[in-house]
Amino acid sequence: LNRLEDFAVQGKMIRGGLVSLGYSILRPDSPEITAPLGAAVELFQSALLVHDDIMDRDASRRGNLSLYYQYKELAETENLSDPYHTGESLGICAGDIAFFLAFDMISRIPVNGDIRSAITGTCARELAYVGNAQMIDVWWGAGTKRPTDQEVLHLYEYKTGRYTFSLPLMVGAMAAEAGEKLLGELKRFGIVIGTIFQLKDDEIGLFGNEKEIGKPVGSDIREGKKTLHYLYLEKKLSPENKERLAAIYGNREARDEDVSWVRTLMTELGIREEVNRVMSDLTKEAEEILEGFPPAEDGAKAVLTRLLAESSKRKK
Amino acid sequence: LNRLEDFAVQGKMIRGGLVSLGYSILRPDSPEITAPLGAAVELFQSALLVHDDIMDRDASRRGNLSLYYQYKELAETENLSDPYHTGESLGICAGDIAFFLAFDMISRIPVNGDIRSAITGTCARELAYVGNAQMIDVWWGAGTKRPTDQEVLHLYEYKTGRYTFSLPLMVGAMAAEAGEKLLGELKRFGIVIGTIFQLKDDEIGLFGNEKEIGKPVGSDIREGKKTLHYLYLEKKLSPENKERLAAIYGNREARDEDVSWVRTLMTELGIREEVNRVMSDLTKEAEEILEGFPPAEDGAKAVLTRLLAESSKRKK
User: Fold this and answer.
1) Angle value at C-alpha A37, between B178 and A169, nearest 5 degrees
2) Which pLDDT value is given to residue B215?
3) What is the 3-class SS of B177-240, one letter each residue?
4) Mean pLDDT across the stretch B86-109?
């Protein structure tokens, strides 16, 4: 479980770690069950990223070339026709295969058959929701329509909350024979912590320390990311300032002083404060859920408490 | 089961029908089990086709626009940026979602949990093999390297045999609590009938009646399809004729008389005969496997026998 904390802080392998954590809320960790289940959940994530990189035309991932892009380079080396499309096609297949192998792994974990099926069904349904959220994301990304506050929060709930946090915690707990009540609480806890995580991400992208986060502050502004901060700000502006914002937001060539203007406005108009309030309300809700958990063996509850604190206080 | 025969002849919904057939080898058909399982298997197929159409840049499917292409048109109508890529991205997501929903359906079929898991695992593994075969196919399609006879047969085995025939028969039989022996026989039967089916497809594409098959005879020659006929022919040619073949095969502008020359050579050099021998050996093997099946209720064995006869005798 200490490793989970390191993972969580680095943002790596968090899902696999959450599976063990979900299990150990009810029972001492059992690696022969949680290891393959955690690996399957990580494999789902890898598969999604392989497909996402194709959609985003992203050449790099985790410090390496993204998978489809590696295939593209290989196709070039081998003088195949249409290497970019060949790379995309192989990437689609590879992502699919990773999904299948993950379902195969789950079909063999050493728990009883009904629990195994329930875990399979839960993964399948949550992945379908993620796919749906991804479609909405693609659609927004290609258009000019502004989503509503509720739509942004909904996306955070499905893409990050339910999938990154609720799903691994739930399937871990299911493997330990959790009842409906605990599963419902874990689902809600995941949604809440995931939303906090995303909002914090937006906050750091806007106001973080450039050295700590490793990307230029304000890049979300230049990329036109539809954050809650942006939607709240947009509502409070005069028509004149609204026009200025429209010229800056999503403009990759925006000048530094224009980006600073946006950031300053967000602070001065209380937007930052407003989003922080949303986060602290969610944090309170998560704390209440945690209190209701069974007194966990193996310190699982303490780790969840730390994870929650980390999510809302992290600086990178 | 009569409907299956119609389906099989039309080449539609064959997989869903084979699930019922696999089940009814052991027990009278039980629609509350075989219907959702058959639907899941069909949904896997739809998902694969959605992804395949993106890879093949195929704008039409089953007489309609292919799914990603529909999204592309929608993106155009809505004035989204980069409509073709947006269509591809939405198609990738939609295919993924269909896979997930199919796994979800399987996770709920009313059989015992261990059988449900075994069915999930079998589907997942066979789909992974199909994905692998598809990657090989993409790689060949983009390159100039000629596959070997064995590689072509291997592709027929995995993409058609195991997946289209073995898998549905096996999962149907698994739902009826088939033992390892019958499952092994069904797997082999599927591989054999699937390979016959593909070889017959190649034969019809070369020598069929244009009116019956609904596409120009010889289009496989112009498209450069790497069939067993082609590989066998290539081996028997003089260097001079080999060169002429290379200029015709895969040349979309090839003249009718050149295409006829290829077809005539295949008959004269006994290639057609040679492939027919492969088919009749496989047919004999399939008949022997069928004989060993338990005397089926509900006429399942008779339907499989007819399906086999149909596969090797059909003209379209």
Assistant:
1) 125
2) 67
3) CCCHHHHHHHHHHHHHHHHHHHHHHHHHHHHCCHHHHCCCCCHHHHHCCCCHHHHHHHHHCCHH
4) 97
Cβ <8 Å between A89 and B115: no
Instruction: Say yes or no for a CB contact (<8 Å) between A139 and B114.
Output: no
> What would the pLDDT profile of A117-129 be if each residue is shown by its tens digit?
999 999 999 999 9
Q: Residue A53: closest CA among chain B residues belongs to which residue?
A: B89
**A128:B97 CB<8 A:** yes
Report the pLDDT value the prediction gives residue B228, as an integer from 0 to 100. 93
Distances (CA, A) of A195 to A148, A303, B5, B237: 16, 19, 53, 67
Residues A96, B96: Cα–Cα separation, whole Å: 8
Q: What is the pLDDT of residue A296?
A: 61
What is the rounded CA–CA span in Å between residue B311 and residue B316? 10
Query: In whole angstroms, what is the distance from residue B47 CA to residue B63 CA?
Result: 17
Q: Residue A89: its chain B contacts at CB < 8 A?
A: 54-55, 138
Is the pLDDT reported for residue B144 higher than 80?
no
Chain B residues whose CB is inside 8 A of the A44 CB are none
Residue linked to tokens 């499917």: B61
* CA neighbor of A174 nearest in space, from A161, A187, A188: A187
Residue A204: pLDDT above 50?
Answer: yes
Contact B108 A121 (CB under 8 A): yes
On whether the CB atoms of residues B106 and B119 are closer than 8 A, the answer is: yes
Higher pLDDT, A243 or B219: A243
Q: Per the CB < 8 Å rule, is B100 touching A143?
A: no
Do the Cβ atoms of A138 and B108 come within 8 Å? no
pTM for the predicted model, two decimal places: 0.88
The number of C-alpha atoms within 13 Å of A140 and in the hemisphere containing its C-beta is: 17
Contact A143 B78 (CB under 8 A): yes
B128 with A75: Cβ contact below 8 A: no
Chain A residues whose CB is inside 8 A of the B140 CB are none
For residue A178, pLDDT beyond 50: yes
Confidence class for position A252, pLDDT limits 50, 70, 90: confident
Instruction: Indicate the residue of B80, B100, B116 with minimum beta-carbon distance to A113.
Output: B116
A133 CB neighbours in chain B (<8 A) are: none
This model of the complex carries an ipTM of 0.87
Q: Which of A55, A108, A117 is the closest to B89 by Cβ?
A: A55
Q: Are A28 and A65 in contact (CB under 8 A)?
A: no
Task: Give the span between the Cα atoms of A3 and B223, in whole angstroms.
Answer: 55
- Residue B187 confidence (pLDDT): 96
Nearest to A102 by CA among A84, A123, A117, A83: A123
Compute the nearest-CA separation of B79 from chain A (Å): 7
Distance CA B2, CA B7 (A): 9
pLDDT, tens digit (0-9, with 9 covering 90-100), for B153-167: 988 898 889 999 999
Which residue in chain B has the smallest CA separation from A100? B124
Q: Quick one: pLDDT band at residue B300, thresholds 50, 70, 90?
A: confident
